[in-house]
Design goal:
The protein is of the alpha+beta class. It is built from 5 helices and 10 strands; from the N terminus they run ββββαββββαβαβαα.
Length: 198
């Protein structure tokens, strides 16, 4: 169990424990990409919104050539109007322009560039996530929540980031560190000082 900032080496996964009843984070799995004493950020990867990608992109005058029913995912409550794309590295051919994508872990690249989104939308790779917003923590907040047992930390797995059935991601992430979800207690949380303030 990490107990200090130096123990959290990103990227990694955070799984919300059952006592976290905040609707933003209940049963969430977060891909944590950055952590330092001053703050942390990442993206929830198992929360589809029900909002079709085609509808979002239509307002941006970007055509969507992927599956008609493909939906955006809720990445977190911070800046929900901001989009981030996670996709398979190599899905964008280099064109000699300034690099606008980052491979955040093996098998997962990230971009927030509208030009990249337009090109990906023309021929979406099989592994593609449009995330709205992100999850952020202030100075010392994430360590405090981990010590409070609000989060379980796990090594990152790209297959969980792009899992075809997001409903299974929380259970599978827990099992990846030897935790049977059925053994975890159920919690009825009424709010108060123990509620995460992300």
């Amino acid at each position: 169990m990490p107990v200090s900032d130096s123990d959290l080496t990103t990227p990694l996964l955070l799984m919300a424990m059952p006592q976290v009843q905040d609707p933003f984070f209940h049963r969430s799995v977060v891909l944590l990409l950055h952590h330092e004493p001053e703050g942390s950020f990442g993206f929830i990867v198992n929360r589809p919104t029900g909002i079709r990608i085609s509808e979002i992109l239509k307002g941006m005058e970007v055509g969507w050539q992927g599956h008609e029913d493909a939906v955006a995912f809720f990445g977190g409550p911070v800046q929900p109007q901001r989009g981030t794309v996670l996709f398979t590295p190599g899905a964008l051919a280099t064109n000699g322009e300034e690099e606008t994508t980052t491979e955040v872990l093996p098998g997962v690249a990230l971009t927030q560039h509208i030009g990249d989104l337009s090109r990906l939308a023309e021929a979406p790779p099989d592994q593609f996530r449009l995330l709205l917003g992100y999850a952020g923590w202030g100075e010392g907040q994430l360590i405090e929540e981990i010590l409070r047992n609000d989060w379980l930390v796990a090594p990152v797995r790209s297959d969980l980031v792009f899992a075809p059935d997001p409903e299974t991601v929380w259970d599978e992430a827990l099992r990846s560190v030897g935790v049977d979800p059925a053994t975890l207690p159920s919690w009825t949380h009424q709010g108060g000082d123990d509620e995460p303030a992300n």
